[in-house]
Write a structure and sequence with these properties.
- By secondary structure, the chain is an alpha+beta fold.
- It is built from 5 helices and 9 strands.
- Strand 6 and strand 7 form a beta hairpin.
Length: 159
């Protein structure tokens, strides 16, 4: 599978959310940048550390004008329980049919889940940065993600 190109429009998606609503990338157009964060599976150690960190830094991401959208192939029921168990402040998206994982080139065909990966999309829907972990047991720290956000900007101009 091929990753989307930097500077190109990010692949569109509409996914079920733990909020009970369906969420589309287009909803953020003109409103905020998006950090799309694919994680393999709920209730695993690295994924839990990652999503809990996103939740703890919720206000900091919001101050940077970035909406974090964690995505996994888990069902919405599983993700709702995960959110409840860890008292997460952000909603997660279910890519149960693996369409978004395929569109972003991160579906692990052998394991049938998404490889841990990050895509920074500006408020115009353009992909500005991407990173796919070589090992799903590794993750980017939020401090690194904030540095990427600062370097690539989340302003309306994408500057």
């Amino acid at each position: 599978m091929k990753l989307p190109e930097i500077g190109a429009p990010a692949p569109a998606f509409t996914l079920a959310s733990t909020s009970g609503q369906r969420v589309s990338l287009a909803e953020y157009s003109g409103r905020s940048a998006v950090l799309l964060a694919f994680f393999p599976l709920a209730f695993t150690s690295t994924c839990t550390a990652e999503v809990c960190a996103f939740s703890e830094d919720f206000d900091r991401f919001a101050s940077a004008d970035v909406t974090v959208l964690p995505v996994s192939v888990d069902s919405t029921d599983t993700l709702r329980e995960y959110k409840r168990k860890h008292a997460l402040r952000l909603d997660m998206l279910s890519d149960f049919k693996r369409d978004a994982s395929r569109a972003y080139g991160v579906l692990n065909d052998e394991r049938f889940f998404a490889n841990r990966s990050y895509f920074l999309i500006d408020r115009h829907g353009v992909l500005r940065w991407r990173h796919v972990e070589a090992n799903n047991g590794q993750r980017r720290e939020d401090s690194e993600l904030f540095a990427v956000i600062a370097a690539h900007g989340s302003s309306p101009s994408g500057a």
